[in-house]
Amino acid sequence: MPAIVIVGVQWGDEGKGKVVDYLSRSADFVVRYQGGNNAGHTVVFDGKTFAMHLVPSGVFLPKVRNVIGNGVVVDPKALRGEVEMLEGRGIRVRGRLHVSLSAHVILPYHIVLDGLREESGHGIGTTRRGIGPCYEDKVARVGIRVADYLDPGAFKALVDQNLRLRACDLERVKPKALIREEVFAEYEPLRGFLKPFCCDVAILLEKALKAGERVLLESAQGAMLDVDFGTYPFVTSSNPVAGGACSGSGIGPTSIGGVVGVTKAYTTRVGLGPFPTEIEGRTARYLRQVGKEYGATTGRPRRIGWLDLVQLKAALRVNGVSNLAMMKLDALANVHPIKVATAYKVKGRLTREFPVSRADQLDAEPVYESYPGFSGDLGAARSFSDLPKAARDYVLAVERGLGVPIPIVSLGRSREQTVLRGKGLPWP
Ligand code: IMO
Ligand code: MG
Protein backbone atom coordinates (compact mmCIF):
# COMPACT_ATOMS: atom_id res chain seq x y z
CA MET A 1 0.00 0.00 0.00
CA PRO A 2 1.59 3.31 -1.02
CA ALA A 3 2.08 6.12 1.47
CA ILE A 4 -0.04 9.29 1.45
CA VAL A 5 1.36 12.75 2.20
CA ILE A 6 -0.80 15.30 4.02
CA VAL A 7 0.52 18.75 3.38
CA GLY A 8 -0.45 22.32 4.25
CA VAL A 9 -0.95 24.39 1.10
CA GLN A 10 -1.11 27.86 2.68
CA TRP A 11 1.01 29.49 5.41
CA GLY A 12 0.46 26.77 8.03
CA ASP A 13 -2.38 26.30 10.53
CA GLU A 14 -4.64 24.88 7.83
CA GLY A 15 -6.00 22.09 10.05
CA LYS A 16 -3.51 19.35 9.17
CA GLY A 17 -3.84 17.82 12.65
CA LYS A 18 -7.56 17.23 12.24
CA VAL A 19 -7.15 15.73 8.76
CA VAL A 20 -4.35 13.42 9.93
CA ASP A 21 -6.40 12.32 12.95
CA TYR A 22 -9.40 11.72 10.67
CA LEU A 23 -7.47 9.72 8.05
CA SER A 24 -5.45 7.83 10.64
CA ARG A 25 -8.52 5.68 11.25
CA SER A 26 -7.35 3.73 8.23
CA ALA A 27 -3.59 4.09 8.84
CA ASP A 28 -0.92 2.00 10.57
CA PHE A 29 1.78 4.69 10.75
CA VAL A 30 1.78 8.49 10.94
CA VAL A 31 5.13 10.15 10.26
CA ARG A 32 6.26 13.73 10.83
CA TYR A 33 8.97 14.52 8.28
CA GLN A 34 10.11 18.12 8.90
CA GLY A 35 9.82 21.09 11.21
CA GLY A 36 9.84 20.77 14.96
CA ASN A 37 7.89 22.16 17.87
CA ASN A 38 7.21 25.31 15.87
CA ALA A 39 4.16 23.34 14.68
CA GLY A 40 0.88 23.54 16.55
CA HIS A 41 -1.59 20.89 15.40
CA THR A 42 -4.90 21.01 17.21
CA VAL A 43 -6.78 17.75 17.56
CA VAL A 44 -10.06 17.32 19.43
CA PHE A 45 -10.36 13.82 20.83
CA ASP A 46 -13.12 12.62 23.16
CA GLY A 47 -14.25 16.23 23.57
CA LYS A 48 -10.79 17.27 24.81
CA THR A 49 -8.55 19.66 22.86
CA PHE A 50 -4.89 18.77 22.36
CA ALA A 51 -2.26 21.11 20.88
CA MET A 52 0.39 18.86 19.32
CA HIS A 53 3.83 20.21 18.50
CA LEU A 54 6.17 17.26 17.89
CA VAL A 55 4.23 14.05 18.42
CA PRO A 56 2.40 13.08 15.19
CA SER A 57 -1.37 13.57 15.15
CA GLY A 58 -1.92 9.80 14.74
CA VAL A 59 -1.36 9.28 18.45
CA PHE A 60 -5.08 9.34 19.32
CA LEU A 61 -5.79 5.98 17.68
CA PRO A 62 -4.19 3.23 19.79
CA LYS A 63 -3.41 0.99 16.80
CA VAL A 64 -1.42 3.71 15.00
CA ARG A 65 2.38 3.88 15.42
CA ASN A 66 3.85 7.35 15.29
CA VAL A 67 7.18 8.31 13.85
CA ILE A 68 9.38 11.39 14.03
CA GLY A 69 11.51 11.26 10.90
CA ASN A 70 15.09 12.35 10.24
CA GLY A 71 13.90 15.63 8.70
CA VAL A 72 12.46 16.82 12.01
CA VAL A 73 14.41 18.89 14.53
CA VAL A 74 13.76 17.52 18.00
CA ASP A 75 14.03 19.38 21.28
CA PRO A 76 14.17 16.49 23.77
CA LYS A 77 12.84 18.71 26.56
CA ALA A 78 9.83 19.76 24.47
CA LEU A 79 9.26 16.14 23.46
CA ARG A 80 9.29 14.95 27.06
CA GLY A 81 6.84 17.71 28.00
CA GLU A 82 4.48 16.65 25.24
CA VAL A 83 4.71 12.92 25.97
CA GLU A 84 4.03 13.58 29.66
CA MET A 85 1.13 15.87 28.81
CA LEU A 86 -0.42 13.20 26.56
CA GLU A 87 0.13 10.34 29.00
CA GLY A 88 -1.20 12.50 31.85
CA ARG A 89 -4.39 12.93 29.82
CA GLY A 90 -4.80 9.23 29.14
CA ILE A 91 -3.10 8.83 25.72
CA ARG A 92 -0.46 6.09 25.78
CA VAL A 93 2.62 7.16 23.83
CA ARG A 94 5.48 4.95 25.02
CA GLY A 95 5.88 1.86 22.85
CA ARG A 96 4.15 3.51 19.89
CA LEU A 97 6.38 6.50 19.20
CA HIS A 98 9.62 6.13 17.24
CA VAL A 99 12.25 8.85 16.79
CA SER A 100 14.85 8.79 14.02
CA LEU A 101 18.47 8.42 15.10
CA SER A 102 19.29 10.85 12.26
CA ALA A 103 17.00 13.68 13.40
CA HIS A 104 18.84 16.77 14.62
CA VAL A 105 18.60 17.92 18.22
CA ILE A 106 17.57 21.43 19.28
CA LEU A 107 19.53 22.63 22.32
CA PRO A 108 19.06 25.77 24.46
CA TYR A 109 21.66 27.76 22.51
CA HIS A 110 19.59 27.36 19.32
CA ILE A 111 16.72 29.04 21.12
CA VAL A 112 19.01 31.86 22.31
CA LEU A 113 20.29 32.35 18.74
CA ASP A 114 16.74 32.36 17.33
CA GLY A 115 15.78 35.11 19.80
CA LEU A 116 18.94 37.12 19.02
CA ARG A 117 18.19 37.06 15.30
CA GLU A 118 14.58 38.08 15.93
CA GLU A 119 15.72 41.04 17.99
CA SER A 120 18.49 42.09 15.62
CA GLY A 121 16.19 44.12 13.39
CA HIS A 122 16.26 41.31 10.80
CA GLY A 123 13.57 39.17 12.41
CA ILE A 124 10.79 37.44 10.45
CA GLY A 125 8.49 36.65 13.39
CA THR A 126 9.67 33.08 14.11
CA THR A 127 8.20 30.92 16.85
CA ARG A 128 11.54 31.28 18.72
CA ARG A 129 11.82 27.55 19.24
CA GLY A 130 15.38 27.38 17.85
CA ILE A 131 14.23 25.84 14.56
CA GLY A 132 16.25 28.02 12.16
CA PRO A 133 19.58 27.83 14.03
CA CYS A 134 19.27 24.03 14.42
CA TYR A 135 18.73 23.59 10.66
CA GLU A 136 21.63 26.03 10.08
CA ASP A 137 23.89 23.67 12.05
CA LYS A 138 22.57 20.67 10.12
CA VAL A 139 23.40 22.22 6.74
CA ALA A 140 26.70 23.61 8.04
CA ARG A 141 27.59 19.99 9.01
CA VAL A 142 28.13 20.79 12.66
CA GLY A 143 24.71 19.65 13.89
CA ILE A 144 24.11 17.13 16.65
CA ARG A 145 21.98 14.17 15.62
CA VAL A 146 19.96 12.01 17.98
CA ALA A 147 22.57 9.25 17.55
CA ASP A 148 25.31 11.68 18.69
CA TYR A 149 23.18 12.87 21.59
CA LEU A 150 22.79 9.29 22.82
CA ASP A 151 26.60 8.92 22.91
CA PRO A 152 27.79 10.96 25.94
CA GLY A 153 31.37 11.43 24.68
CA ALA A 154 30.35 12.50 21.17
CA PHE A 155 27.67 14.79 22.59
CA LYS A 156 30.07 16.59 24.90
CA ALA A 157 32.64 17.14 22.15
CA LEU A 158 30.04 18.41 19.68
CA VAL A 159 28.43 20.79 22.20
CA ASP A 160 31.86 22.26 22.98
CA GLN A 161 32.63 22.65 19.27
CA ASN A 162 29.31 24.37 18.62
CA LEU A 163 29.59 26.70 21.60
CA ARG A 164 33.00 27.76 20.29
CA LEU A 165 31.61 28.32 16.79
CA ARG A 166 28.70 30.39 18.07
CA ALA A 167 30.57 32.10 20.95
CA CYS A 168 30.54 35.61 19.45
CA ASP A 169 26.75 35.70 19.33
CA LEU A 170 26.04 33.70 22.48
CA GLU A 171 28.33 35.77 24.70
CA ARG A 172 26.09 38.78 24.02
CA VAL A 173 23.40 37.05 26.07
CA LYS A 174 25.17 34.89 28.64
CA PRO A 175 28.67 33.65 29.36
CA LYS A 176 29.45 30.57 27.28
CA ALA A 177 30.35 28.60 30.40
CA LEU A 178 26.90 29.21 31.84
CA ILE A 179 25.17 28.05 28.66
CA ARG A 180 27.39 24.95 28.64
CA GLU A 181 26.45 24.19 32.22
CA GLU A 182 22.75 24.60 31.44
CA VAL A 183 22.96 22.33 28.40
CA PHE A 184 24.58 19.52 30.36
CA ALA A 185 22.48 19.96 33.50
CA GLU A 186 19.21 19.77 31.56
CA TYR A 187 19.99 17.57 28.59
CA GLU A 188 22.21 14.83 30.07
CA PRO A 189 19.33 13.55 32.25
CA LEU A 190 16.95 13.67 29.26
CA ARG A 191 19.01 11.10 27.38
CA GLY A 192 17.44 8.24 29.30
CA PHE A 193 13.99 9.51 28.39
CA LEU A 194 14.72 9.71 24.65
CA LYS A 195 16.70 6.50 24.19
CA PRO A 196 13.84 3.95 24.20
CA PHE A 197 12.10 5.80 21.36
CA CYS A 198 15.06 5.89 18.98
CA CYS A 199 15.61 3.70 15.94
CA ASP A 200 16.54 3.70 12.25
CA VAL A 201 13.22 5.00 10.94
CA ALA A 202 14.01 4.28 7.26
CA ILE A 203 14.28 0.55 8.10
CA LEU A 204 11.09 0.65 10.19
CA LEU A 205 9.13 2.28 7.34
CA GLU A 206 10.60 0.03 4.67
CA LYS A 207 9.37 -3.02 6.62
CA ALA A 208 5.95 -1.42 7.12
CA LEU A 209 5.49 -0.60 3.44
CA LYS A 210 6.68 -4.05 2.37
CA ALA A 211 4.15 -5.61 4.74
CA GLY A 212 1.37 -3.60 3.06
CA GLU A 213 0.83 -1.28 6.02
CA ARG A 214 -0.62 2.18 5.49
CA VAL A 215 1.65 5.12 6.10
CA LEU A 216 0.52 8.74 6.41
CA LEU A 217 3.15 11.48 6.22
CA GLU A 218 2.17 14.61 8.15
CA SER A 219 3.69 17.94 7.16
CA ALA A 220 4.14 20.80 9.56
CA GLN A 221 3.85 24.43 8.36
CA GLY A 222 2.78 24.79 4.72
CA ALA A 223 3.90 25.30 1.13
CA MET A 224 4.13 29.09 1.47
CA LEU A 225 6.49 28.66 4.44
CA ASP A 226 8.69 26.22 2.49
CA VAL A 227 12.31 27.38 2.37
CA ASP A 228 12.41 26.84 -1.41
CA PHE A 229 8.86 27.57 -2.61
CA GLY A 230 7.51 29.88 0.10
CA THR A 231 7.63 33.65 0.49
CA TYR A 232 11.37 33.65 1.13
CA PRO A 233 12.88 34.92 3.42
CA PHE A 234 9.66 34.90 5.47
CA VAL A 235 9.61 31.12 5.66
CA THR A 236 10.60 28.29 7.94
CA SER A 237 13.92 26.48 7.52
CA SER A 238 12.70 23.17 6.09
CA ASN A 239 10.72 21.71 3.17
CA PRO A 240 7.10 21.11 4.16
CA VAL A 241 6.23 20.42 0.48
CA ALA A 242 5.41 16.82 -0.35
CA GLY A 243 8.88 16.22 -1.83
CA GLY A 244 10.27 16.80 1.66
CA ALA A 245 8.33 13.77 2.87
CA CYS A 246 10.86 11.50 1.16
CA SER A 247 14.06 13.19 2.29
CA GLY A 248 12.60 13.71 5.76
CA SER A 249 11.53 10.11 6.40
CA GLY A 250 13.66 7.78 4.28
CA ILE A 251 10.75 6.65 2.08
CA GLY A 252 11.52 6.70 -1.66
CA PRO A 253 9.33 8.66 -4.11
CA THR A 254 8.03 5.46 -5.71
CA SER A 255 6.28 4.62 -2.43
CA ILE A 256 4.19 7.80 -2.39
CA GLY A 257 0.72 7.15 -3.79
CA GLY A 258 -1.04 10.45 -3.25
CA VAL A 259 -0.85 13.92 -1.76
CA VAL A 260 -3.71 15.45 0.21
CA GLY A 261 -3.44 19.25 0.40
CA VAL A 262 -5.07 20.96 3.36
CA THR A 263 -6.47 24.47 2.97
CA LYS A 264 -8.77 26.64 5.02
CA ALA A 265 -11.86 28.10 3.34
CA TYR A 266 -10.07 31.44 3.79
CA THR A 267 -6.41 32.24 4.55
CA THR A 268 -4.35 33.00 7.66
CA ARG A 269 -0.71 33.71 8.35
CA VAL A 270 1.32 34.23 11.55
CA GLY A 271 4.62 36.06 11.48
CA LEU A 272 5.84 38.66 9.02
CA GLY A 273 5.92 38.55 5.24
CA PRO A 274 3.82 39.08 2.12
CA PHE A 275 0.15 38.10 2.27
CA PRO A 276 -1.61 39.46 -0.84
CA THR A 277 -5.22 38.78 0.22
CA GLU A 278 -4.82 40.01 3.81
CA ILE A 279 -7.74 42.02 5.16
CA GLU A 280 -8.16 44.17 8.22
CA GLY A 281 -11.22 45.58 9.91
CA ARG A 282 -14.57 44.08 10.84
CA THR A 283 -14.54 40.90 8.71
CA ALA A 284 -10.98 40.08 9.77
CA ARG A 285 -11.88 40.53 13.44
CA TYR A 286 -15.01 38.43 12.99
CA LEU A 287 -13.15 35.54 11.31
CA ARG A 288 -10.38 35.70 13.91
CA GLN A 289 -12.98 35.35 16.63
CA VAL A 290 -15.21 32.63 15.16
CA GLY A 291 -12.27 30.76 13.63
CA LYS A 292 -10.28 30.99 16.92
CA GLU A 293 -7.38 32.31 14.87
CA TYR A 294 -4.68 32.48 17.51
CA GLY A 295 -1.42 30.54 17.16
CA ALA A 296 -1.51 27.10 18.85
CA THR A 297 2.22 27.43 19.59
CA THR A 298 2.76 31.09 20.43
CA GLY A 299 -0.79 32.41 21.01
CA ARG A 300 -0.17 35.24 18.50
CA PRO A 301 -3.28 36.56 16.72
CA ARG A 302 -3.23 35.26 13.15
CA ARG A 303 -3.42 37.61 10.19
CA ILE A 304 -6.60 36.99 8.18
CA GLY A 305 -7.32 37.10 4.43
CA TRP A 306 -9.55 35.77 1.66
CA LEU A 307 -8.91 32.50 -0.10
CA ASP A 308 -6.27 32.99 -2.80
CA LEU A 309 -6.42 30.77 -5.88
CA VAL A 310 -3.21 32.26 -7.30
CA GLN A 311 -1.32 31.21 -4.18
CA LEU A 312 -3.10 27.85 -3.98
CA LYS A 313 -2.35 26.98 -7.61
CA ALA A 314 1.34 27.57 -6.98
CA ALA A 315 1.15 25.36 -3.89
CA LEU A 316 -0.75 22.57 -5.68
CA ARG A 317 1.89 22.57 -8.41
CA VAL A 318 4.93 22.19 -6.18
CA ASN A 319 3.23 19.54 -4.04
CA GLY A 320 1.59 17.49 -6.80
CA VAL A 321 -1.64 17.60 -4.78
CA SER A 322 -4.11 14.89 -5.81
CA ASN A 323 -6.95 15.78 -3.39
CA LEU A 324 -7.81 18.71 -1.16
CA ALA A 325 -9.38 18.98 2.27
CA MET A 326 -11.15 22.28 2.87
CA MET A 327 -11.22 23.26 6.53
CA LYS A 328 -13.29 25.71 8.58
CA LEU A 329 -16.02 26.30 6.01
CA ASP A 330 -18.31 26.80 9.04
CA ALA A 331 -16.35 29.90 10.10
CA LEU A 332 -17.28 31.65 6.84
CA ALA A 333 -21.00 31.57 7.72
CA ASN A 334 -22.48 35.07 8.03
CA VAL A 335 -19.76 36.66 5.90
CA HIS A 336 -21.35 38.45 2.92
CA PRO A 337 -20.05 38.44 0.23
CA ILE A 338 -17.17 35.98 0.26
CA LYS A 339 -14.23 36.99 -1.88
CA VAL A 340 -11.70 34.80 -3.65
CA ALA A 341 -8.58 36.07 -5.42
CA THR A 342 -8.24 34.73 -8.97
CA ALA A 343 -5.42 36.96 -10.26
CA TYR A 344 -3.01 39.67 -9.09
CA LYS A 345 -2.01 43.01 -10.43
CA VAL A 346 1.75 43.34 -10.04
CA LYS A 347 3.24 46.68 -11.04
CA GLY A 348 0.11 47.39 -13.04
CA ARG A 349 0.24 44.06 -14.96
CA LEU A 350 -2.34 41.28 -14.58
CA THR A 351 -0.95 37.84 -13.68
CA ARG A 352 -2.34 34.48 -12.57
CA GLU A 353 1.01 33.19 -11.30
CA PHE A 354 2.37 33.74 -7.80
CA PRO A 355 5.41 36.03 -8.20
CA VAL A 356 8.87 34.87 -7.15
CA SER A 357 10.58 38.15 -6.25
CA ARG A 358 10.00 39.52 -2.77
CA ALA A 359 9.23 42.99 -4.13
CA ASP A 360 6.56 41.61 -6.48
CA GLN A 361 5.05 39.46 -3.72
CA LEU A 362 4.67 42.58 -1.57
CA ASP A 363 3.32 44.60 -4.47
CA ALA A 364 0.74 42.00 -5.57
CA GLU A 365 -2.75 43.42 -5.49
CA PRO A 366 -5.46 40.75 -5.69
CA VAL A 367 -8.25 40.73 -8.23
CA TYR A 368 -11.33 39.22 -6.57
CA GLU A 369 -14.42 37.32 -7.54
CA SER A 370 -17.32 37.53 -5.08
CA TYR A 371 -19.62 34.74 -3.97
CA PRO A 372 -22.88 35.04 -2.04
CA GLY A 373 -22.50 34.29 1.66
CA PHE A 374 -24.50 31.75 3.66
CA SER A 375 -25.67 31.49 7.22
CA GLY A 376 -26.66 28.89 9.79
CA ASP A 377 -24.80 26.40 11.95
CA LEU A 378 -22.81 24.40 9.40
CA GLY A 379 -21.27 22.32 12.18
CA ALA A 380 -24.51 20.36 12.50
CA ALA A 381 -24.34 19.06 8.89
CA ARG A 382 -23.51 15.37 8.53
CA SER A 383 -23.43 15.23 4.74
CA PHE A 384 -22.49 17.64 1.99
CA SER A 385 -26.14 17.88 0.92
CA ASP A 386 -27.07 19.15 4.43
CA LEU A 387 -25.15 22.37 3.69
CA PRO A 388 -26.81 25.57 2.43
CA LYS A 389 -26.67 25.83 -1.37
CA ALA A 390 -24.41 28.88 -1.29
CA ALA A 391 -21.89 26.97 0.88
CA ARG A 392 -21.91 24.02 -1.54
CA ASP A 393 -21.55 26.38 -4.48
CA TYR A 394 -18.52 28.00 -2.83
CA VAL A 395 -16.75 24.61 -2.48
CA LEU A 396 -17.64 23.70 -6.09
CA ALA A 397 -16.35 27.05 -7.37
CA VAL A 398 -13.02 26.59 -5.59
CA GLU A 399 -12.77 23.03 -6.89
CA ARG A 400 -13.43 24.24 -10.45
CA GLY A 401 -11.00 27.13 -10.06
CA LEU A 402 -8.20 24.85 -8.87
CA GLY A 403 -8.95 21.77 -10.96
CA VAL A 404 -8.37 19.42 -8.00
CA PRO A 405 -11.13 17.45 -6.21
CA ILE A 406 -12.12 18.45 -2.68
CA PRO A 407 -13.36 15.18 -1.15
CA ILE A 408 -13.08 16.34 2.49
CA VAL A 409 -14.88 19.38 3.90
CA SER A 410 -14.48 20.23 7.57
CA LEU A 411 -17.19 22.07 9.51
CA GLY A 412 -15.77 22.24 13.02
CA ARG A 413 -13.09 20.81 15.25
CA SER A 414 -14.56 17.41 16.08
CA ARG A 415 -14.18 14.30 13.90
CA GLU A 416 -17.98 14.17 13.38
CA GLN A 417 -17.92 17.63 11.84
CA THR A 418 -16.37 16.32 8.64
CA VAL A 419 -18.26 15.54 5.45
CA LEU A 420 -17.03 13.51 2.50
CA ARG A 421 -18.10 14.14 -1.05
CA GLY A 422 -17.43 12.99 -4.60
CA LYS A 423 -15.26 9.90 -4.60
CA GLY A 424 -14.56 10.32 -0.89
CA LEU A 425 -11.27 9.47 0.79
CA PRO A 426 -8.03 9.07 -1.14
CA TRP A 427 -7.78 5.56 0.31
CA PRO A 428 -10.18 2.69 -0.39
P1 IMO B 1 1.80 24.46 11.79
O1 IMO B 1 2.46 23.11 11.61
C1 IMO B 1 1.99 28.72 11.05
C2 IMO B 1 5.98 30.52 10.86
C3 IMO B 1 6.40 31.50 11.92
C4 IMO B 1 7.33 32.40 11.11
C5 IMO B 1 8.03 31.41 10.19
C6 IMO B 1 9.39 30.93 10.67
O2 IMO B 1 0.99 24.60 13.01
O3 IMO B 1 1.05 24.82 10.54
P2 IMO B 1 10.15 29.26 12.57
O4 IMO B 1 9.89 29.26 14.05
O5 IMO B 1 9.64 28.06 11.86
O6 IMO B 1 11.58 29.54 12.22
O7 IMO B 1 9.31 30.52 12.02
O8 IMO B 1 7.16 30.30 10.07
N1 IMO B 1 5.53 29.20 11.36
C7 IMO B 1 4.25 28.79 11.34
N2 IMO B 1 3.12 29.44 10.98
N3 IMO B 1 1.92 27.43 11.44
C8 IMO B 1 3.04 26.76 11.76
O9 IMO B 1 3.06 25.45 11.98
C9 IMO B 1 4.28 27.45 11.76
N4 IMO B 1 5.55 27.11 12.07
C10 IMO B 1 6.31 28.18 11.79
O10 IMO B 1 5.30 32.21 12.43
O11 IMO B 1 6.57 33.26 10.30
MG1 MG C 1 -0.53 25.50 13.84
Describe this structure in words.
The chain folds into three domains: 3-98 and 199-258, Adenylosuccinate Synthetase, subunit A, domain 1 (Adenylosuccinate Synthetase, Chain A, domain 1); 104-192, Adenylosuccinate Synthetase, subunit A, domain 2 (Orthogonal Bundle), CATH 1.10.300.10; 262-420, Adenylosuccinate Synthetase, subunit A, domain 3 (Adenylosuccinate Synthetase, Chain A, domain 3, Alpha-Beta Complex), CATH 3.90.170. It starts with a strand and ends in an 8-residue tail after the last strand. The longest helix is centred in the N-terminal third of the chain and has 15 residues, at 108-122. Strands 9-7-5-2-10-1-11-16-20-21 form a ten-stranded mixed beta sheet, with helices on both faces. Strands 15, 17, 18 and 19 form a four-stranded mixed beta sheet that branches. It has a three-stranded antiparallel beta sheet with strand order 12-14-13, with helices on one face. The chain has helices spanning 16-23, 76-88, 108-122, 131-139, 146-149, 152-165, 167-170, 176-187, 191-194, 201-210, 244-247, 282-290, 309-319, 358-363, 389-402; strands at residues 3-8, 29-32, 41-45, 48-52, 65-68, 73-74, 97-100, 104-105, 198-199, 215-218, 256-264, 267-269, 278-279, 303-305, 307-308, 323-327, 338-346, 349-351, 365-371, 408-410, 418-420. Strand 3 (41-45) and strand 4 form a beta hairpin. It has 428 residues and is α/β, with parallel strands linked by helices. Helix content is 32%, strand content 20%. The structure holds 6-O-phosphoryl inosine monophosphate and magnesium ion.
